[in-house]
Design a protein that fits this description.
CATH topology of the largest domain in chain A: L-amino peptidase D-ALA esterase/amidase
Radius of gyration of chain A: 22 Å
Strand content of chain A: 15-25%
Catalytic activity (chains A, B): L-glutamate + acetyl-CoA = N-acetyl-L-glutamate + CoA + H(+); N(2)-acetyl-L-ornithine + L-glutamate = N-acetyl-L-glutamate + L-ornithine
Largest sheet of chain A: 6 strands, mixed
Number of domains of chain A: 2
Largest interface: A-B, 64 and 65 residues
CATH superfamily of the largest domain in chain A: L-amino peptidase D-ALA esterase/amidase
GO molecular function (chains A, B): L-glutamate N-acetyltransferase activity; L-glutamate N-acetyltransferase activity, acting on acetyl-L-ornithine as donor
Oligomer: homodimer
Enzyme class (chains A, B): transferase
Number of strands of chain A: 15
Distance between the termini of chain A: 12 Å
Strand order of the largest sheet of chain A: 13-12-11-14-10-15
Number of helices of chain A: 11
Order of helices and strands of chain A: EEEHEHEHHEEEHEHEHHHEEEHEEH
Subcellular location (chains A, B): Cytoplasm
CATH class of the largest domain in chain A: Alpha Beta
Shape of chain A: globular
Helix content of chain A: 25-40%
Active site (chains A, B): 193 (nucleophile)
Chain lengths: 408, 408
């Protein structure tokens, strides 16, 4: 089927080269696609790596191996296969990943554990080893490509190509972070979402890179949801080549560490929002801001209960300020809440305060807000200082059409 | 909008009168509907009552009061308002319910706590007290009506009228159970689902009636889901008038207690399945059978993760045997599972065994099964003896159309 480009799409940004990173793409022909489907990134010796992986128990071999590889803290290459997730394929799936790792390690003269592999696409079909081998051979001899080419090649049902850039100054040196990501469906919280890759020329110790990435995850990838379904393959990796020549960041005591952590958080937030903007069938980007909860974690769970509610998401699709459904979602979240202290608003206008509809509620400005592309939902629980922001998209006929007809 | 009758609808059964129960309906005109919207059931003095209520924290005053009233164990009347749920309406909502209780108690000469009230419909609009008062006055002076009339009157977005009947023999006497239920959207597990009422002429002590109802709930109402959204008003009440004259059932040691408990479970299962058959937009009834879990509770949670997955539900809507999405849902359930022991099947045919697609998998019989109205999904976790059956419906364009356009 032909899936229309998301009306929430954003243009691919101008991303400069990152010293120590070389990108290449090739056609492994995992599916009958007239496009490249294998992405290869070569990384300078000594590149630090950090990662986030799906919590789905039925995860792919790529995820299992990636988690083990993380212990070494160093990476020399990344391979991303699109069109086949290689998940739920038993020992044959694992053999395919180990074959890719060995082939690249042999070429680079590095340890296999320094070669990271991700795959995305249909579940349950072992990745064909012959196609992978030929694809990698082709990539290794191809001309380097742009960020946009690489970002496009890792996509599957994505309707637009997603990238982001951020910078930070560390000890007088400007370091750059480049990120690419793919994802549109099977997007749910409480994990590292979909396939996302961040590359920086900063010099960062692996443990601190992981700390920055994990902290950013809490407020970015873990705060988005498209359909509450957690993928078997979700992976976000960050690579720091060190080519910028700054004194390596080892902890928050290092000079420039705060600025770098802020830049990581910035690029993660950009990438996470791009995924929501390409949520399957999305017509509106929804920001749910929860305040007054007993803790930040509680606020996030309430926010996700709202963002995952099909009744809330269809109401917004219908441009209906149906705050009763928001009440329902707050109440089912399983978190502390008091119906008689609850306030709900849309687009900066309260519709209900402290457990009752506003006596002088004027629906006109709220109705106007709901006709837009970006919808703001505010919930104040009136209990404490906990707060969170969660992002999702509306639930439309497009989601049904994409998922009832397409074998992902 | 005009919502088509569910293709999974079942005809209303022949339900005999239950001695000690008199049904009446009237028009309170809560909404602009050309039909009765207020149901009144008068119950013989001494009628035992048991109940199940939503766990949604933002529940209605009807639910709060009903939970308190349960302590008395006796009921003389039930009033059900359709078109307005009276939820999230603060003290005005509570006053409206207390007004109805007082009016009926005054008429019957009973305690107000013996009058049970439920309301269903839009959230956030206080139930108009004048309309309720006039509606009840009209009901009290109207002719008794049929089970089908009463079942039709409690409905809102329901596309067909739902009733069930069961019988049991207690000490040589046949007792009858009659049930009516409404519900179509905002249906989720872990609670007593929607508005359901069971009436029996059996003599049963309230505590044992509650024990039977709670036990039945675990395998019926708590095992269905339409859209994962838990309503603010869900209520199931069981009334036992005692008119059959059997020796009152007080525990499982009483003669006929097992048969009665089985009949309660039977009627609860019938009623729960009728709600799924009228799930918003439903085109297929889906039974998810989970075995091999570490416990029954774990099996149920895995079953609900599958039944609530929008990707599984849209795949079945599209008649696609996409078992990879079932793997994903098992893995995200947060329950013990081992990818390499997992087996998945449809309609009695395994598609994957022990973590891998079947080598000789023949898709034809599975594809044929998926074209039907009733779909069976089987999951064997291969870990233990825990099992559960969960029911849901597919997710279709109809759900989007109903919920993006209708203010519930």
């Amino acid at each position: 089927m032909d899936i229309a480009r998301s009306p929430l799409a954003q243009p691919f940004p101008a991303i400069p080269p990152i010293a120590g990173v070389t990108l290449r793409i090739a056609r492994a022909r995992y599916k009958d696609w007239d496009r490249a489907d294998l992405t290869y990134a070569e990384l300078a010796p000594g590149t630090a790596v950090a990662g986030l992986f799906t919590k789905n128990i039925c995860c792919s071999s790529e995820v299992e191996l990636g988690r083990e590889q993380m212990k070494g803290g160093r990476a020399r290459a990344l391979v991303v296969n699109a069109g086949n997730s290689n998940a739920f394929t038993g020992y044959r799936g694992r053999e395919a990943v180990e074959g890719i790792m060995a082939q690249v390690a042999d070429h680079l003269g590095c340890a296999a554990a320094e070669v990271f592999v991700s795959s995305t696409g249909v579940i349950g079909v072992p990745l064909p080893q012959d196609k992978a081998r030929a694809g990698i051979a082709a990539a290794l001899t191809s001309e380097p490509c742009s960020w946009e080419d690489a970002a496009e090649t890792i996509g599957t049902t994505d309707t637009f190509t997603k990238g982001a850039v951020a910078q930070a100054v560390i000890g007088g040196r400007t370091v750059t972070l480049a990120g690419i990501i793919k994802g549109s469906g099977m997007i749910a919280p409480d994990m590292a979402t979909m396939l996302g890759y961040i590359f920086t020329d900063a010099a960062v110790e692996p443990a601190f890179l992981q700390a920055c990435l994990s902290a950013a995850n809490e407020r970015t990838f873990s705060c988005i949801t498209v359909d509450s379904d957690t993928s078997t393959s979700d992976t976000v990796l960050a690579f720091a080549t060190g080519a910028a020549g700054n004194a390596p960041l080892a902890s928050f005591d290092s000079e420039g560490a705060d600025a770098f952590a802020a830049a990581i958080a910035d690029i993660c937030r950009q990438l996470a929002l791009l995924v929501v903007r390409d949520g399957e069938g999305a017509q509106k980007l929804i920001e749910v801001r929860v305040s007054g909860a007993v803790s930040d974690a509680s606020a996030r769970r309430v926010g996700l209960a709202i963002a995952n509610s099909p009744l809330v998401k269809t109401a917004i699709a219908g441009e209906d300020a149906n705050w009763g459904r928001v009440v329902m979602a707050v109440g089912k979240a399983g978190e502390p809440a008091d119906r008689d202290r609850l306030s709900i608003g849309f687009g900066g206008h309260w519709t209900a305060r402290e457990g009752q509809p506003l006596a002088n509620y004027d629906e006109a400005p709220v109705a106007e807000h709901l006709t837009g592309r970006e919808i703001a939902v505010a919930v104040d629980l009136g209990l404490g200082d906990g707060q969170a922001v969660v992002w999702t998209c509306d639930l439309t006929h497009g989601y049904i059409a994409i998922n009832a007809d397409y074998r992902s």
